[in-house]
Amino acid sequence: MESRSFRFDRFWLDTDNRQLRQGDVRVDLNARYLDALALLVREAGRLVTKDRFLEEVWRGVPVTDEALTQCIKTLRRALGDDAANPRFIETIPKHGYRFIAAVEPAGNQAAIAPAAGTLPGQDLRRFLLLGGAGTIGAGVAGLIGGLFYGFAGAAQPLGTGMGAASVLLVLLWLTMMAALMGGAGVSFGIAAAGFATARHWIIAGGAAGGLIVGGAVKLIGLDAFNLLLGQSPGNITGASEGALLGGGVGVGAWLASRAMVSLRRAIAVAALAAGAAGVLITLAGGRLMGGSLELLSRSFSDSRLRLDRIGALLGETGFGPVSQIVTGGLEGALFGGCIVGAMLLAKRGLDPRPAASG
After folding, report:
1. Do residues 275 and 333 make contact, with C-beta atoms less than 8 angstroms apart?
2. Closest Cα to residue 253, out of 198, 181, 187?
3. What are the backbone dihedrals phi and psi of residue 73, each rounded to the nearest 5 degrees, phi first?
4. Cα 358 off chain centre by
5. pLDDT tens digits, the chain, 358 residues: what are they?
6. Is-above-0.70 flag for pTM?
7. d(C-alpha 357, C-alpha 105), whole Å
8. Whose CA is closest to 281, among 315, 318, 319, 247?
9. Of residues 222, 352, 349, the one with CA closest to residue 292
């Protein structure tokens, strides 16, 4: 007897009961679009022509090509697919469409759903690879930001005992370490949200990861200053900044997944969301990397670090509020864009197109 239920990726399609589910969550589709998905899934790996859609889905009712295009667009949105880099529905220009994900017949939902509380090996591998990719992306952001602050700091008169190269290397190391630690928290938080069925958990995952890492880094950092120098600089970047920036990155990742856009546009969306979070942090009195470096330099009288050149570019005397807002927005945009871009690239590597069958 031919199977009337199918499993692909995290989805379960039951054609008898006419429903599509992602885990335990029902995905709403109208009857016509559900028929189109069922046709594609039954013919997985094979071309489904426009004529077949018209015959088997619209059943001879005259429709324009735009109706089929809108149908496929809606199905991609429901599946979280990307037309530019498809994981499920591939466009065959001027001919039709092909379902390219691996499909398994399933007798019932219990047979294909993991038991509650289990952690499938495939999901664990996905979690580790996506979190690791995001951390690497954050490291790239830290490298770029470290070079920016390093060259700005090295351009100041330093007196004796420290050269410009040393200033550049120290600031590069500090910025990269901060970005890697913060990026690991945010990236693994977002990756952990993949175990949930609802996409909006991406935002909560990013915020929670940023909160935990930001709080821990601030606590350890202040204790280290008190232990080694007998005083602490005060309000450096901490839990609240980490939560807001992590949530901004999560919003960017969520919007990018919903918009079904190209990689370049997805990175731009994430950069805008995280950049807005960076601006909000500074407007609320918080500090990101630039503000924290300036605070450190002002808290210790013997410090030779100054970021006045950045302020001068923005018409300020010293590294003032405008400088903090601008650099906060740029830091957030760079951080979010690099993390989401790296995670999307890793995700596409995890979901390769299956080889076409003969």
Report:
1. yes
2. 187
3. -60, -40
4. 36
5. 355 788 888 888 988 888 898 877 888 888 899 999 999 999 999 999 998 998 899 887 777 888 899 999 999 998 988 887 888 999 988 889 999 988 888 754 443 343 333 444 566 787 889 899 999 999 999 999 988 888 877 666 555 555 667 777 888 888 898 889 888 999 999 888 866 655 667 888 888 888 887 777 666 555 555 555 455 556 666 678 888 888 889 888 887 765 545 678 888 888 999 999 989 988 988 888 887 777 777 766 666 677 778 878 888 888 888 988 999 999 999 999 999 999 888 876 655 443 333 3
6. no
7. 17
8. 247
9. 222
d(CA 96, CA 312): 58
Pairing of strands 11-14, 25-27: unpaired
Cα–Cα distance, 114 to 129 (Å, whole number): 21
Element (H, E) at 244: helix 239-259
166 CA to centre of own chain: 34
Measured between alpha carbons, how far apart are the two ends of the chain, in Å? 24
Residue type, 188: F
Kindly report the CA angle at 112 between 44 and 86, in degrees rounded to 5?
35
Determine if residue 59 is left, alpha or beta; phi over 0 gives left, psi from -120 to 50 gives alpha, anything else beta.
Answer: left
- CA 149-151-157 angle, to 5 degrees, is 105
Amino acid at 16: D
Nearest Cα to Cα of residue 258 among 241, 273, 243, 245:
273
Where do the domains of the chain lie, and which CATH numbers do they carry?
Answer: 7-112 (1.10.10.10), 121-350 (no CATH)
In terms of DSSP H, where are the helices of 17-92? 31-42, 50-56, 65-79
